[in-house]
Amino acid sequence: MMKALPYTLFILIALMMLSCETDPPNPFDVYNQIPVDTNQIDVSATSIEGLYKNIFKPTCANSGCHDGSFEPDFRTIESSYNTLVYHPLIKNDVDDPIDYRVKAGDHQNSILYRRLTKDLGGNSGIMPLLIDPGNDWEEKKDEYIKNISDWIDGGAKDIMGQTATIVDRAPQMTGFAAKKPGSNPIYPRDFGNGSIIIPFGEPTIEIYLGVSDLESPISNLSVISLEISKSRDHFANAQVYSMTYLSNPPSEIGYSGQNVDYQFRATVDDPDNIWDLGETAFARILIQDPLQNDVTMIPGRFSADHLKIYFSIQLQ
Ligand code: HEM
Description:
With about 325 residues, the protein is an alpha+beta fold. It is built from eight helices and twelve strands.
């Protein structure tokens, strides 16, 4: 027994040393040794991340500019992408109007490129309108503009490297109006609630709808029906009318206060037989966009009250 003691001790000590030796590696050892600054990740100058890092963030998203004050929103890579690619624009080029801020594959027809190279209408200024001290825009302008046009022509890829695809938006309403047939002005709206006021005793009235759609020509849209109901939200007992497409539409004041084209018209005979004096009726229009599966309802079931009232008519 005593003879075995030194061996036992030896084995015990050996085991203890082994267990001391085999601690698992500390995963943070690597990071401590090689600090990684994710902002310094090498991104291609013609990628959305590179454009954001080199141009949008330092030169466009400065205070009071595209920092949420004005569109496009260059605060983040995502906001830059989402407010540029296939995004409608606010100020167009009157000489040669286009549709999008960035049209993938086509920098010449992208307002982003034009605003950096052309003073629209001679009164808009070329971006950036102001340059902060120490900024490298003036020095690198040509290179940066080339990076932007290369990104656009390369398919305006997103952060995942996916080429941009056009998103077909539903037709949007630009105005709703009514008037007496012939070259008469549109009927006014009630100052109080905004309904269209139709004088009692008109044998026939015309009801007009203005729409916009960036992806589908308006002539390709088909109005399934104009429905007029005495209830704001229930159309089961609505009067139903067809609407005709007008290739030479009248231009009248629209929902945004600017003049718009009214491309669809319906004729309503004997309104006095449909609504009582002082009564309000509510309209809704069903439109089929050939590029869309679903029928678009204007205003929709869940549209805001003020929009449903904008689509209402009162006999006075
Ligand atoms: C290279 C950096 C910049 C780029 C790429 C850029 C791009 C643009 C684009 C594409 C628009 C047109 C948006 C539309 O109409 O839909 C625009 C408008 C505008 N930008 Fe910039 N911008 C830059 C820098 C700046 C700076 C630094 C300021 C502020 C000093 C600024 C102020 C404005 C304003 C006020 C508008 C709206 C008025 C207008 O259309 O002229 N931008 N910008």
